[in-house]
Amino acid sequence: MGRLLVLTVTVSLAVVVVVLIPVTSGKRRITGAQALRFNWKNCGQPNDPAVLRTLTVSPDPIKIPGSLTASASGSTSVELSSPLPLNVTLEKEVAGFWVKVPCLDDLGSCHYPDACDVLNQLFPVGQDCPEPLRTYGLPCRCPFKSGSYSLPRSDFYVPYIELPHWLTNGNYHVQGVLGGQGKELGCVEITLAIHSD
User: Fold this and answer.
1) Which end of the chain is more exposed for a tag (fewer CB within 10 A), N or C?
2) Is the separation of the CB atoms in 109 and 89 below 8 Å?
3) Cα–Cα distances in Å, from 130 out to 10, 102, 165?
4) Distance between CA atoms of 61 and 64, rounded to whole angstroms?
5) Who contacts 81 (Cβ-Cβ below 8 Å, separation ≥6)?
6) Helix, strand, coil % (nearest 5) of the chain?
């Protein structure tokens, strides 16, 4: 997977982690959740330097906790380095309308001044990148050099997670816009449904 793909997958996972990991009270441990109907698409301009080319995730539904298989590819025509602003917009479907979820304790529709800082929190400097990134020689921290990246079909384990009560059931739309040097570098949209017991 190109460095962009690694960054996109890593940022996508970071977005999921940021959205799903508890930081405040009002969370409950989910022991029987599923993510269904996972879809993605590029939402940027045709000439954006960072582009996700492929992303497959299975099974559908993804059980939480449980195993999933993913593969991805992408490219970036520019080096992606700090500061790397990331704007995340999270919407939940309510009564047939999409409602923007505000940013609460870094969850929801938030602006992150530097996605590289988020990656450093997930993957501290000085520690090896996690598998399978390490096996395939893919970076998990900035900078991401220009080029193409590919993550072959790989297995991951999704652990138990704690979700805010408002995030436990429903249809969701997430958009992540990556910026740098005052311009958009890439954009990815993800839609999925979450159902918990």
Assistant:
1) C
2) yes
3) 11, 31, 30
4) 9
5) 116, 142, 143, 144, 180
6) 15, 50, 35
- Residue in 113, 107, 66, 70 with CA at minimum distance from that of residue 89: 107
Q: How far apart are the first and last CA of the chain?
A: 35
- Cα separation, 26 vs 166, in Å, equals 9
> Tens digits of per-residue pLDDT, 148-169?
999 999 999 988 877 777 777 8
Whether the model pTM is above 0.85: no
Burial label for 83, CB within 10 Å (0-12, 13-18, 19+), is middle
- What token pair was written down for 58? 């299975």
Report long-range pairs for 93-97 (Cβ below 8 Å, ≥24 apart).
93/170, 93/171, 93/172, 93/173, 94/170
Per-residue pLDDT reduced to its tens digit, 169-196: 899 999 999 998 788 999 999 999 988 8
